Amino acid sequence: MKIAVYPGSFDPITLGHMDIIRRSAKVFDKLVVAVLCNVEKKGLFPIEERVAMISKLVEKYDNIEVVSFQGLLVDFMKTVDAQIIVKGLRVGLDFDYELQMSHMNRKLSDDRVETILMMASTEYSYISSSSVREILHFKGDIRSFVPEEIIQDVLKKSETMEG
Ligand code: ADP
Asked: Most buried of the four, 28, 110, 132, 163, by CB within 10 Å?
């Protein structure tokens, strides 16, 4: 069984992330969306909120699981028996970063883990969580960037967080 992990901060999840999730769930037998719990960077949305939002979006897929993790990705992958990392590629800058990370992860896993890069769809390739956070901060319209089903959750949460 080909089990892949799609790791990220998903702070918050965007249409671009969802596109990669949907497409990779067709390629692999099972996809684990792994939400990185970064101890040094708190982020805008608490981890449990991010997991809850993504879970709501993937409810209808029976081969997608959503979990949070801490520590090294290769160690987490052992716990879910996965050997493939899926990453999304938007622009050249992503490639430079992912190339280095993929070598690191392969070395760290004694050649057990492979990284597969999936090209972002053109219509979403300019979307990033950081720009969504910035738009939220200035009370702008996020409807073109975030899945419709969670817009209310995102708006409610960001209002309470910004006081
Ligand atoms: P961001 O870079 O938006 O803050 P993450 O750190 O959560 O997001 O990214 C997780 C993965 O999703 C990375 O591989 C990243 O390149 C990919 N990704 C992010 N946004 C998009 C998008 N719009 N289209 C395709 N892949 C994306």
From this structure: 132
Residues 38-75: tens digit of each pLDDT = 887 788 999 999 999 999 999 999 999 999 999 999 99
- Write the CATH number for 66: 3.40.50.620
- The residue nearest atom 21 of ligand 1, judged by CA position, is 16
Backbone angles phi, psi at 26, to 5 degrees: -85, -25
Active site residues: 17, 41, 90, 129
Give me the torsion for CA of 95, 97, 103, 105, rounded to 10°: -120
pTM of the model: 0.95
Strands 30-36 and 114-119: unpaired
Among 11, 14, 17, 133, the mutation site with the greatest number of ligand 1 atoms within 8 A of its Cβ is 17
For 154, counting Cβ atoms within 10 Å of its Cβ (0-12 exposed, 13-18 middle, 19+ buried), the class is buried
Number of domains observed in the structure of the chain: 1
